[in-house]
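Dissemination and training. As part of the outreach component of the grant, students in the summer workshop were shown how a complex can be specified as a set of sequence lines and then modelled as a single object. The example used during the hands-on session is reproduced here so that future cohorts can follow it. Participants entered these lines:
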Amino acid sequence: MSLMNVWKNWASRLSVMTYKEILQFLRDPILMLILVYAFILGVRNAGTSVSMQIEHAPIAFIDNDRSNTSREVIYSFQEPWFSPYGVISGPREGQRLLDSGKVMAVLDIPPQFEESLMRGDPESIQLQLDTSNSSIAEIVEGYASQVMAPLGQTFGLKSLGISSSSSSLPPGIIDAHRIWFNPNVLDSWFQSVCQLIQVITMLALLLPAAAMVREKERGTIEQLTVSPLSPLQIILPKVISMTLAIIIGCCLSLFIVIGPMFHVPMKGSLLLFFVITAIYVFSMTGIGVFIASISRNLAQVGLLSIMLLTPMIYLSGKFTPPEAMPGALLAVMYIQPTYYYLNIVFGILLKGAGVQILWLQILIMIALGSVIFIAAMRRFKRQMG
Amino acid sequence: MATASVLNGDGSALPIRVSEFGKSYGKVVAVREASLDVVKGEMYGLIGPDGAGKSTLMKSIAGVLAYDAGSIEVFGQKVDSEESAELIKSRIGLMPQGLGLNLSPDLSIEENIDYFARVRLVPPSELEARKDRFLKMTRLDSFRNRPMKNLSGGMKQKLGLICSLIHLPELIILDEPTTGVDPVSRRDFWAILSELSRAEGMTALISTAYMEEALRFDRVSLMHEGRFLASGTPEELVGLVPGTMVELRCPNQIEALGVLREYYAQVEPRGEWVRLLADTADRDKAKSEAISFLPPDLQPTEVRTWDPDLEDVFIALLRQREQTEGEATSAAGTVETYAALPEEQMERTAIEAMELTRIFGSFTAVDHVTFQVKQGEIFGLLGANGAGKSTCIKMLTGILPPSSGEGQVSGADMRFAGQEIKERIGYVSQAFSLYIDLTVLENIMLYAGIYGVPKDLRPERAEWVLNVAGLSGRGDAKVASLPMGLRQRLSLGCALVHQPSTLFLDEPTSGVDPVGRRQFWDILYRLSRVHNVAILFTTHYMSEAESCDHIVLMFAGRVVADAPPESLEDNIENQVGHLLEFRTSDPPNALGLVTSIFPEALAYGSRIRLISSDPTGDEQRIREILTEHGIQVLSVTPKPISMEEVFVHTVTSLERESEKAKGAA
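and obtained this result:
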């Protein structure tokens, strides 16, 4: 047989197997439903309702001064950031409210607060925070500082005899922000794209693993192992068809939700985005194949996937900036493709970056993906033998 | 016992009384108008193919499935609600279908039994004795501490039976307990059941897809598509279709088949013979008639006649019903065109194993196995569960490398050319392994693509496969909607799509009804006789083993017999003796007496069978001991030795030898 014929045979086997996978996928209504839900409704929900911006943080006040100034301070804590609970009797009640979770913060203004300020002495006030959820507490704390800073400055200037409206301000640094890439700091942009990445990651892992283990469960794998198919010819069609399904899902997501509903600019090349996504899905399916090779049934695939997906998503940089990670975890973060994929996708969609900027990240992602895929194939081959 | 009265002989209520029972799943009617009375101490068989409604009826009787019509009474208690079912559950035992499904895989044999005993509140004082007795009877006592998951299929099934019997139920309901179980394990299985029914008066309702097991029952009902075709003792059923089986050995088997099919409705190949059912009980007339239909060049060299067996009767009954109701099951088609082997390869050895050995760790699964399969031969590879058949097939098909030894398949060396072998063979496995969510045609096209059938040939080849499988015009049907028999024919069709010269069939007919199995075999005969295809076949149906041209029997990884089935049967007859069947006036007590002098004797319903090296002397001894105890001997009939006896006898004597060897060491 000539080399040409060998290649033609190989391609023909691949194409009939891929056609079979696509048919099976289309015949599974539950799978279609999940795809549509995850890519359309899931992304929409994430964009509209998941928000890191805290609103209506309940706050209580202990006013030991009962002066104009203390009331001025209290009235500065307003909606929509805060939801004032009211003035309470003292620290004991404050503690109780914090313990029961009725308020997130208690602001304690000391006696003779106004008097000391008038005298020109520094005065401190105390903010007690419920930090059981540390990230939310930090945000609330940030808000409180933002409220208090101008107040403090006003008093400071007053004591120097300068009116805050005066044109002759003392020397100081004016802190002027320019916000790039997401000028209105819209959470919906970040959240919807993150959700898309999460859905892609999840399906890229689960779909091929489920398709593989279904062959095991129904015993159809036996017929394939005695046929002249190589392990690669069994796996590749699943990877190709699932990648196709995920790319179509991405299109739905981008052109129905992320674009029209959230007006994410999608500045960079969409072609590049799809190519990168295909490569990413490919490397994720490697992990899926690995899971399928050690699982006996769909339940095991599901549990193993959940176990792997959670750390992968947490270490993708979505929730945790790499700069804040301890050394060992940072290493884990740097060896998983999701981290690079997240950066690349944000680069393309929000920043309009192209290959000339992202090439290193893309190369690393491809390298990691290939290693995972080859390792998984080796394991699968051993199992079939 | 043939006619059931409303009450047992002692005036107590019948163990099972079913009248006008009906059950549907949505639009599908599973069982209709079924009526059935089972008397105390009786072994009652429900016989029929997959999907006949056996499981539905049995589950309803056991009180675990609600039903739509009719009534069920168990020990006089109406079973019509969960509460009423609870009242009888302590008196019955149920073993559901499937190998070891009711057992815990990680517990040992003993722990499984103890667990069931505790759930059933068996007094600890009685448990030990009972456990010992059951384990000894099933020959499991040396494996007490082995976890269930490491047992062979047959052992799992025996353990399942012990667990369902440990509380000595008055009624035991077993759903296809012997499907996929080898003949030796099946024999142990029947031994414990007949012993309990004899000693404790236990009643049993058992379903099976093996027609040859029908003889084990006192009474049977033949079921098909939710209906009872006929009920009665095995003798009564055989009497329903008066006729003679004529077997002819003709020069050209396939042509003779074609000629005789024009005159007889039931004609099939068996080994080198053509077997047909003539509708006259007069043997000589049947014989001469059959011969007269054959043209001079097809005149038989040898003719023999038999009484029809139950399988023949089942098929005849089905045929009669189809004629009256105009229903027709689609028949398998013909195999017209086939890629012919080049002349010089017609006589070659298609499959050859030479000293094949496979070792897993310290366990030798296959031990220096040597055999040959010629083109055009149907070759049966037999053995108990775990004897090494599957490992052998895996090595020959190039999936598993051998530890040592060599072999070739279709001219390709199995050690180096696994890929070539895979391209040249067809393979059908015991588990259905096509895609049920695809249509018939989509499956065929998939395999046509995998096996590299050229694109322009594929539509034509698909049409051919549809024809072979008897599925013409049903190409667009989802495979999920096909019954078991048709699915297996489609599997065979898909395995033939590239027209291989060698076929590997690993228990392809497990669970397929007799009609489906015969149609399957029809295709196999055409392939082997007309197109010279070599076929390697494994099965637990001994009636199928008899249809093979050549048999290799494996035991503990070794080949222990290698000959055509007839010479294996003759060997046993010459070495061990003849098969005798006794009918007596008091079967339960007679069995006890006979087994006291012949431990190998077995109950077949109300009859007793044993192999005797001295038929006249042994018959005399048995007659003496029975008359001494006031039991009349109604008849003694010599029976032909079948593959069932060959298998059981060979394997059990080897097992005894290896145990002795272990004991000596």
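The domain at 242-307 of chain B is CATH 3.30.70 (Alpha-Beta Plaits). Students were then asked to discuss how this feature might be tested experimentally.
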